[in-house]
Hints:
Blueprint lengths: L2 E7 L3 H12 L4 E5 L7 H5 L1 H19 L13 H12 L2 H12 L2 E4 L2 E5 L2 E4 L2 E10 L3 E3 L13 H4 L8 E5 L3 H13 L6 E5 L11 H12 L3 E4 L4 E7 L3 E6 L3 E5 L1 E4 L3 E3 L13 E2 L2 E2 L12 E3 L10 H19 L15 E3 L4 E6 L2 H6 L5 E5 L5 H4 L7 E6 L5 E8 L2 H13 L4 H8 L11 H5 L7
Helix pairs in contact: 1-9, 3-4, 3-7
Amino acid sequence: xxxxxxxxxxxxxxxxxxxxxxxxxxxxxxxxxxxxxxxxxxxxxxxxxxxxxxxxxxxxxxxxxxxxxxxxxxxxxxxxxxxxxxxxxxxxxxxxxxxxxxxxxxxxxxxxxxxxxxxxxxxxxxxxxxxxxxxxxxxxxxxxxxxxxxxxxxxxxxxxxxxxxxxxxxxxxxxxxxxxxxxxxxxxxxxxxxxxxxxxxxxxxxxxxxxxxxxxxxxxxxxxxxxxxxxxxxxxxxxxxxxxxxxxxxxxxxxxxxxxxxxxxxxxxxxxxxxxxxxxxxxxxxxxxxxxxxxxxxxxxxxxxxxxxxxxxxxxxxxxxxxxxxxxxxxxxxxxxxxxxxxxxxxxxxxxxxxxxxxxxxxxxxxxxxxxxxxxxxxxxxxxxxxxxxxxxxxxxxxxxxxxxxxxxxxxxxxxxxxxxxxxxxxxxxxxxxxxxxxxxxxxxxxxxxxxxxxxxxxxx
Length: 461
């Protein structure tokens, strides 16, 4: 019976991060993957893949905003060319993943893993034992009890479309729907696709700040992206050879050319036989402590299959923490590697981008936490006027002793600015100190505008 120091289940970014780190520490590692395309969602159908379409959409959007401001002919997107560029990258991922692992001396085990005990599992009829295991199986589109939902495409199917139709309907008002709708609005058939987002809840993008989401929704509407909330979808049916009809409660209907599943993702854990390993889980994912340990102290869970935050870099950080803690415990030391979730930034790759870190204003009020606020909407600063962006906005939330509680940026470079706030929060830099450190930012840039956002918190300015 083959035996390993650590067996990792899943070849995505979290699984690979843990595997390489543990192998470097001299451990015998086996990595199990059942997919015919190893490499994980992020590289193949998520973060990396979608970025090809975002870069094209951003270029088109920026040129449109600057029409008659120095740009005579705005850029026109070509979905097919971007698809080809994306495919040239993704088609190499599976082979490169396996080759990289094997060259490192990590055993790549093909097949579906099922736990058979607290320290054992089976793959394709072969039994394996291990001292530790890391579950990094990721997530997949959530199952929705909607008749006809099989007619909808998921994120993978959308990013493999050879061309975009004129009418697209997105089920769910989350990350995927907003990002994909913004891609379609700029890269679809000229003069543009008509996108509809149907959200079951009272508003879209629930984890984000309500006021900032409203501004993003307004900006989206100007690109022919319509959002409907509190909509109960009762069924999807095919009409003719190309048209689909989406039925909603109270006899509502939406006719469209394409339906896309954007209503969230669920952890891929149901057929791992976790009970046999005495690992506790729920529909939200595998339960872990702050050291990424499950209810079985020898088994860890990281990435989207764990009941934590579903983001690629969070998965990497969790994998690194799990790997460190396995090494420490093997050496008789206490585990101490954790992930600072409170300072994890999130970013919507829409145009404008929406970046946030920390708390929302609603959550602070709900929890009775006192705060001060610096906020401005529809910014008319030179950095935005010269690119024709009329929907830029920010909201900074600060608590006692200048501690940053939350930051929200709607901008064409929200990614860079929100990372500054994330680092400040992680390193306990006060808002006053951050203002001082930002004064020498490259000028005039989006980052140099941070001092104007922070100045209301600084006495004497």
